[in-house]
Design a protein that fits this description.
single chain; mainly alpha; 7 helices; 47% helix; 0% strand
């Protein structure tokens, strides 16, 4: 029973643009640094790619009720083709459009679009399945 002023009596709110709450989500930023020399960014700024993909990774971690792990970042960067030196042109066009300036707190609404494009059922899959889907047809991992 909620008996402190900060407790939520009905649980964590959910809905559009509220994000996915989970423990130690900031750790995803530390994990993202391990990808510095692996990212194929094209015209997307590294800070924007990291901000958008961390949002996807923390969503995935929260769906499992845990802190982010390296596979969450691998999934996120894979879904948007940042680990592919030659990603599909239509995916490049999409990510150039949706990742622009999302690192800025002034663009929170735009950043929220990115994880909202990735269905929960995709994020519940093992990362090797998501990678396979990306290789066969990247659109299978997104609501586009």
């Amino acid at each position: 029973m909620a008996d402190r002023p900060g407790d939520l009596a009905s649980g964590q709110p959910s809905g559009e643009r509220l994000g996915s709450q989970g423990p130690d989500q900031g750790y995803a930023l530390t994990l993202a640094k391990t990808f510095d020399d692996k990212l194929a960014l094209g015209d997307v700024a590294k800070s924007d790619a990291v901000a958008g993909c961390v949002a996807v990774a923390t969503k995935r971690a929260a769906l499992y009720g845990r802190a982010p792990v390296i596979h969450d970042l691998t999934v996120a960067f894979t879904i948007f083709g940042f680990l592919d030196v030659d990603p599909p042109a239509d995916l490049v066009e999409l990510r150039d459009r949706i990742f622009a300036e999302v690192h800025s707190h002034h663009h929170y609404a735009e950043r929220r679009v990115i994880p909202d494009l990735v269905p929960d059922d995709v994020l519940h899959q093992p990362h090797n399945i998501i990678v396979g889907n990306y290789r066969s047809d990247w659109t299978r991992n997104l609501n586009v």
